[in-house]
Amino acid sequence: MLLRPDGAVLLADRPAGKPYAGYWEFPGGKIEPGEDVQQALARELHEELGIDIGPARPWFVFEYDYPHAYVRLHFRRVYDWRGAPHAREGQQLAFFDPTDELPQPLLPAAVPALRWLTLPSVCEWLEAGALGVDALLAHLDARLAQGLRMVLLHEPNQAQAAIDGLLAAVLPRCRAHGARVLVCSTQGRPMQDADGMLLMPDALADLVARPSAPWLGAMVRDATDLAQAARVGCDFVMAGPVLPSADAVGAITLGWHGFSALASTTPLPVYAMGGVATTDLDRAQHAGAHGVAVSSAVPRLSAA
Length: 304
Fold this sequence. Notes:
Blueprint (H helix, E strand, L loop, with lengths): L8 E5 L10 E2 L11 H13 L2 E2 L3 E9 L4 E8 L3 E2 L10 E4 L13 H7 L5 E5 L1 H4 L1 H14 L3 E4 L6 H18 L2 E5 L11 E4 L1 H5 L9 E6 L2 H9 L4 E4 L15 H9 L6 E4 L7 H6 L4 E5 L9
Parallel strand pairs: 8-9, 8-15, 9-10, 10-11, 11-12, 12-13, 13-14, 14-15
Antiparallel strand pairs: 1-2, 1-7, 3-6, 4-5
Helix pairs in contact: 4-5
């Protein structure tokens, strides 16, 4: 998919004579024998749109059962191309903001991808236990002003009253900037005002159905956790730890190679977490990440 710097994504409608004619989709096509995903995408976008693309960033891979075909879809994000996209096959073309009104009807497999495009590329873990409440709120105000649009409340050692008070202080700040607030499943009770929940591995393993939450994520450590997250209908996962950090000294880390292997066939958007910083975003996305999940308080130990 082609993405402009403002976040708008290019959609095209399917020409007459094809299955789902008139439905809007992401331009692309089939992988021919002997091609890898990058080569196939470059060829298809040149044929359909008359452009030449730079390296595409892996995003997720899932399978969809259409009435006319069972397909395996490799979604990749393209930010760099040469030439102006123009219809070479008679299709309509337009860039759309995925947070705004979209053209209808949409090809079914495009629907979850368009929803996931609204997930910010950076999520920050808020840890008042490490910083103190006043310092944390000052830090949050600064980060929201810089563009942070999703935070995770993670206070496993705080009393419920303290967590409630922190949430009451965080929510209006985030609402004023259009930022989402998630809570960890370790917090004592469901947070009705939050925008979603992140399941810890133990909570994820016990699930048989999706909990009620506008946005549902899960922390995963391996392919088994990832498969379970997809099975229960999570919207995204956070995978790690990728690199060493001060709160996980001695923990087994994935490293960027291990993270890329885990993310290479993920059916869900995945955030790189554990020892990563916002400066790792580009590297993480080239390794298959949707984005990075960073800590407000815990420093990394290595830049490896």
